[in-house]
Specification:
Length: 361
């Protein structure tokens, strides 16, 4: 698809990022023997369990999210079932989004595994936006070993559909002026906002594609979908979606980490690295007039498994030496529980609060 006309920095260029089979991908990182097996993260296949995520091997058998685990087992007798570990997924998710913010600062997370990026803040054209999206994918893969699909366009609705267009790991850019033609051939159910009832009405009226909805005469639209909902959905079908990013949620943590060129076991080197990162965090806290009550240390082992340890204080701190001391203690505790060489260590501070002192008079 051509890149289309250049945008300006004030124009809206939005990306939607969607991690590929996120829960299953994390489980495969934690246990690499699962990578070649059909895998379902979900409930009891002999009870009323539901599939949360299926890896791509399992999807070859028609297994998908929201399917009953019993049906998944019927479709593939040798599928592996793993119970969800949400705390682990939150750790990986936090790491992903911190990595993304290192490339594109303004982000709206809509879930652990997906969200919108304000690409127009840092890219002036769709060609630049493509390169930036590629940089995000590369950074996420390097930092977490996870892959993501990204869609880039002028609105949330087009970007979201575009991110699903080339999964897993694909990138689809829909430049300004090409939105409606890109959306046109997709099934109507793919349009965000079209629920089961609306889909039933539209299909019964002969509207089966997004393009058909976009071209629907006003009278027919009012008959099938009366009220403002119909007009809103038709605008979306034409690629018109004025929603910007929802930035109500403030950043609640900051962190620094480093992946080593070679795996490290030397405790003194690891401590020195943590203290160096603690000083960086301290400087950021002081620059922004904030303190943090919880200090965390992150470890990634040679098998790519991740462990974190944290401790919370009664009052917030911004002192690098204090943060470093706590981080080193957490690392020692983690390595006592599970010794081994490390590929990566990181330090994070959360429970952030403003703490600007008033000048004495």
């Amino acid at each position: 698809m051509p890149e289309g006309p250049a945008s300006t920095l004030s124009s809206m260029i939005i990306a939607h990022l969607d991690l590929d089979a996120f829960f299953a991908a994390v489980e495969e990182l934690e246990d690499p023997t699962l990578r070649t097996k059909p895998l379902v993260v979900g409930g009891d296949p002999h009870g009323r369990g539901v599939v949360a995520t299926a890896n791509y091997e399992a999807r070859k058998f028609g297994i998908h999210s929201a399917m009953s685990c019993a049906e998944a087992l019927r479709r593939c007798r040798h599928v592996v079932f793993v119970r969800p570990r949400h705390s682990l997924y939150r750790e990986y998710s936090q790491h992903v989004w911190e990595t993304v913010r290192g490339v594109v600062p303004t982000v709206e997370r809509t879930g652990l595994d997906e969200g919108y990026l304000d690409v127009g803040e840092v890219a002036a054209t769709f060609l630049q936006a493509r390169k930036l999206a590629e940089a995000v994918q590369t950074s996420v893969r390097a930092a977490t070993s996870l892959t993501c699909a990204i869609g880039v366009s002028t609105s949330k609705v087009v970007a979201k559909i575009a991110s699903d267009h080339r999964k897993p790991g694909g990138l689809t850019v829909v430049p300004e002026g090409h939105e409606a033609s890109f959306l046109s051939p997709f099934d109507i159910r793919r349009l965000p906002g079209v629920g089961p009832k609306a889909e039933q009405r539209l299909v019964a009226g002969g509207v089966e594609t997004i393009g058909s909805l976009a071209a629907l005469p006003e009278g027919e639209l009012r008959r099938l979908l009366p009220g403002s909902v119909g007009r809103m959905l038709q605008e979306r079908a034409r690629g018109i979606d004025p929603r910007g990013l929802d930035l109500q949620t403030q950043r609640i943590s900051i962190s620094v980490e480093n992946t080593f060129e070679r795996d490290l076991t030397d405790r003194a080197q690891l401590h020195a690295e943590l203290r160096r990162m603690a000083e960086r965090l301290s400087q950021h806290l002081r620059d922004t007039g904030r303190t943090g009550r919880t200090v965390s240390t992150k470890l990634r082992y040679t098998d790519f498994s991740i462990r974190t340890r944290s401790t919370s204080l009664r009052v917030g701190i911004d002192d690098g030496e204090q943060i470093g001391e706590l981080a080193c203690g957490l690392l020692d505790r983690a390595l006592t529980d599970r010794p081994g060489a490390l590929r990566l260590v990181g330090v994070g501070v959360s429970g952030l609060a403003s703490h600007r002192q008033l000048a004495l008079v």
